[in-house]
């Protein structure tokens, strides 16, 4: 199960992950972390049985937690099943099934690479949009 | 030799007895029945392709306003259309970006919106003449409001297209999609077994005047496309069709990130089985269709060939490059190519799609020469400074500080004991190190990720490297990676300023 953590600037310097591991003794795999001056965004993988506990432990520490159940959101009207999203995804979320592109749930780490790579602008992330230079962003 | 005529086949299309298969089904049939048996059993093989076809566009006639205008410039949803044709004829090209939304909305998107029945905002300007006094115009039009909306695509349906890989150190955003660094992926385009020209490579049926499936409607081949080059297996088609009969299912606007807009066009060509040779040609399989993987990491016209590959390997999802399996994926949609071959099959079976005799054959000899460049552009070696100072990686900070004061640049390339470029430090790095103290050698503070320019590279490429990485100087290296000069943004701006003042 993947969880996306949004860490506010005031707690970003705290050893959040270590303390959650000690508290819950869950095995946590960090899939992606981007931390800058204004906030942090971390994607972790935990086993399904520890998921709820880990989630609550983070939330108690003021971290906003999102379960990544859906990979990315795809607009089925726009998708033409070209495949431009397949080989660029670092986690192999997309694959062909009889030449239709299908997305496997539970693999996506919300990195956004496919969002810019999709020529038909059919994909968007659950939360935020990566910046398309000099252009309008897609989605709501 | 088993043969039949086009007249016989059209007779069967009329009376509903025609036997049609898709190009995917044909190879097995020919294996089973032999070419003669296949000619007896099959009348028509349908093909299909659906991919980015940048060289596409639409002629639009707006009708005359009152008072009339002779349009010189026109914008459709802020996308410029060419107005230099008579008074109210325009040509809207698929790759033209819009003024307000840039590459995210372009000519292709206007075309898709028109086909989807949406309103398009038209802004036009004219010079004002005695017969066309009006100076400007604003109106809102839908596809039905145009007198004519005729798609004319100068180069579509490539017989073959090179696949792309990227050996460089950075991710490239190209018309071949996102190419990951260090040979991270391979992108290819084209339908392989369903490709129209691959199923009639000798142009026995395909010719001027051939009726085709175009964007969901019916269209025609007008002739060979631009850059048509049958000798090297890169034939192309120029096609036309009435946009009013097309559907957004088979005409889709797209944007390649940091490249621009393009149009995905659906094309299908029926191929009659007139003789055994044609049946053998239409029995082609993905393993018989070979293309090249070329390196887009080298931004020159002749990109290095990495290896030859069949569509069977490309479609498998992995190809071997230098002993490593690299992921492949297509940019064109095989899913839609298949839909097109089936839709075309259905419309022939329904008697709606009679086959055509060629008005004239396509040229067997084409031309795809490089551009004749009459103006010489300088190379890096013509512009760079040669009095560059390099220092060895084990040089002390103090000595490096002296060197940079003595030298003429803010940058000090660092080399190893064999003289190869391995890093770079700036005067800022050195001053910081001196101020902080406690740092002995330049190798401790140098950036190991150093960009460089090649001696024999056009300066445009060096300028792009400086620009992409927001840096101000590049060491120039020869083939052995020895530093022989330095090129800076000052060199380039001086040069461009000179060029502009001429
Ligand atoms: S790149 Fe976009 S259009 Fe192509 S298959 Fe992926 S989601 Fe669909
Ligand atoms: S966001 Fe990243 S991980 Fe998720 S599907 Fe897209 S490319 Fe793959």
Structure write-up:
The complex is a heterodimer of chains A (140) and B (502). A four-stranded antiparallel β-sheet of chain A has the order 2-3-1-4, with helices on one face. In chain A, strands 5-8 form a two-stranded antiparallel ribbon. Chain A has a two-stranded antiparallel ribbon with strand order 6-7. Chain A is of the alpha+beta class and 140 residues long. In chain A, strand 6 and strand 7 form a beta hairpin. Chain A is elongated and about 45 Å long. Chain A has two domains: 66 residues, Alpha-Beta Plaits (2-Layer Sandwich); 66 residues, Alpha-Beta Plaits. Chain A contains three helices and eight strands. In chain A, helix 1 packs across helix 2. The two termini of chain A are 26 Å apart. In chain B, strands 3, 4, 5, 6, 7, 10, 11, 12, 17, 18, 19, 20 and 21 form a 13-stranded antiparallel β-sheet that branches. A three-stranded mixed β-sheet of chain B has the order 1-2-22. In chain B, strands 13-23-24 form a three-stranded mixed β-sheet. By secondary structure, chain B is of the alpha+beta class. Chain B folds into three domains: 258 residues, no CATH class; 84 residues, no CATH class; 122 residues, CBS-domain (Roll). Chain B has eleven helices and 32 strands. The model of chain B has no long low-confidence stretch (mean pLDDT 93). Chains A and B meet through helix 3 of A and strand 3, strand 9, strand 16, strand 20 and strand 26 of B. The complex binds iron/sulfur cluster (2 copies). The site of one iron/sulfur cluster has 13 residues of chain A, from loops.
């Amino acid at each position: 199960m993947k969880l996306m953590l949004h860490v506010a600037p005031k707690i970003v310097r705290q050893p959040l992950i270590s303390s959650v591991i000690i508290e819950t003794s869950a095995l946590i795999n960090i899939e992606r972390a981007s931390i800058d001056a204004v906030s942090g965004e971390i994607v972790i993988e935990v086993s399904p049985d520890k998921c709820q506990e880990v989630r609550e432990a983070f939330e108690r520490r003021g971290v906003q937690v999102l379960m990544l159940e859906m990979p990315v959101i795809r607009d089925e009207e726009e998708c033409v099943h070209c495949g431009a999203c397949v080989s660029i995804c670092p986690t192999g979320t997309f694959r062909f099934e009889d030449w239709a592109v299908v997305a496997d749930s539970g693999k996506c780490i919300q990195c956004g690479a496919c969002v810019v790579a999709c020529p038909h602008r059919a994909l968007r992330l659950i939360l935020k949009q990566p910046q398309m230079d000099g252009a309008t962003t897609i989605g709501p | 030799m088993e043969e039949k005529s086009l007249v016989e086949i059209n007779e069967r299309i009329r009376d509903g007895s025609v036997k049609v298969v898709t190009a995917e089904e044909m190879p097995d049939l020919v294996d089973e029945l032999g070419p003669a048996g296949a000619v007896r059993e099959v009348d028509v093989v349908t093909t299909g392709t659906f991919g980015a076809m940048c060289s596409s566009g639409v002629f639009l006639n707006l009708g005359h306003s009152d008072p009339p205008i002779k349009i010189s410039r026109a914008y459709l949803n802020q996308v410029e259309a060419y107005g230099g044709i008579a008074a109210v004829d325009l040509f809207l090209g698929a790759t033209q970006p819009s003024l307000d939304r840039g590459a995210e909305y372009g000519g292709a998107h206007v075309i898709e919106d028109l086909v989807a029945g949406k309103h398009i905002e038209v802004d036009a300007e004219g010079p004002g003449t005695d017969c066309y006094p009006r100076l400007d115009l604003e109106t809102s039009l839908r596809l039905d409001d145009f007198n004519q909306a005729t798609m004319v695509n100068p180069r579509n349906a490539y017989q073959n297209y090179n696949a792309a890989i990227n050996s460089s150190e950075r991710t490239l955003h190209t018309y071949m999609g996102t190419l990951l660094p260090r040979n991270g992926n391979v992108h290819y385009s084209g339908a392989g077994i369903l490709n129209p020209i691959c199923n009639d490579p000798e142009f026995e049926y395909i010719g001027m005047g051939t009726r085709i499936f175009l964007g969901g409607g019916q269209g025609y081949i007008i002739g060979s496309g631009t850059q048509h080059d049958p000798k090297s297996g890169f034939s192309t088609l120029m096609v036309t069709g009435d946009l009013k009969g097309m559907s957004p299912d088979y005409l889709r606007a797209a944007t390649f990130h940091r490249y621009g807009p393009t149009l995905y066009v659906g094309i299908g060509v029926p191929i009659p089985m007139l003789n055994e040779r044609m049946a053998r040609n239409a029995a082609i399989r993905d393993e018989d269709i070979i293309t090249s993987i070329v390196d887009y990491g080298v931004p020159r016209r002749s990109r290095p060939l990495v290896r030859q590959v069949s569509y069977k390997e490309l479609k498998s999802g992995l190809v071997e490059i230098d002993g490593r399996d690299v992921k492949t994926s297509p940019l064109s949609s095989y899913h839609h190519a298949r839909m097109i071959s089936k839709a075309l099959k259905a419309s022939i079976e329904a008697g709606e799609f009679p086959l055509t005799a060629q008005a004239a054959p396509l040229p067997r000899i084409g031309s795809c020469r490089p551009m004749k460049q009459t103006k010489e552009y300088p190379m890096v070696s013509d512009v760079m400074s040669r009095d560059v100072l390099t220092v060895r990686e084990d040089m002390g900070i103090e000595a490096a500080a002296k060197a940079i004061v003595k030298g003429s640049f803010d940058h000090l390339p660092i080399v190893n004991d064999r003289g190869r470029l391995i890093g770079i430090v700036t005067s800022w790095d050195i001053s910081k190190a001196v101020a902080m103290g406690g740092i002995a050698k330049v190798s401790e503070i140098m950036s190991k990720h150093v960009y460089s320019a090649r001696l024999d590279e056009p300066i445009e490429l060096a300028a792009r490297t400086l620009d992409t990485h927001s840096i101000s100087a590049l060491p120039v290296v020869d083939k052995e990676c020895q530093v022989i000069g330095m090129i800076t943004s000052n060199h380039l701006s001086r040069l461009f300023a000179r060029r502009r003042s001429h």
